[in-house]
Amino acid sequence: MSDNERNENEPEIHKDLTGFNIHIDEFGQVQTTLSQAQINSFLNENVQDKKFSPEVLKQLEKRSRQIQDEEE
């Protein structure tokens, strides 16, 4: 469905979350159409963690690149 075809009552969603649905079943358990790993991956890529200052994030990214280089 294109943006033009979208019902005005439907919320806008990120293209990576197309088809995502979440609800609570009769037992109180959260049911989703995406796995927890997929949700976490999306959040890691698209949402900045406010617990980390920009300086700490730079240090973490630098260390991550070092680890990746060591593994290659």
Provide structural commentary:
Helix content is 40%, strand content 8%. With 72 residues, the protein is mainly alpha-helical. The termini are far apart. The protein has one domain (15-71). It contains 2 helices and 2 strands, in the order ββαα. It has helices spanning 36-46, 54-71, and strands at residues 22-24, 30-32.
Task: Provide keyphrases for this structure.
8% strand; 40% helix; mainly alpha; two-stranded antiparallel ribbon; 72 residues
Spatial strand arrangement across the major sheet: 1-2
Indicate the structural class: mainly alpha
What is the β-strand count? 2
Uncertain spans: none
Mean pLDDT: 85
Beta percentage is: 5-15%
> Helicity, in percent?
40-55%
Provide a count of the helices.
2
Q: Span between N and C termini?
A: 41 Å
**Main beta-sheet strand count, sense and barrel state:** 2 strands, antiparallel
Strand/helix succession: EEHH
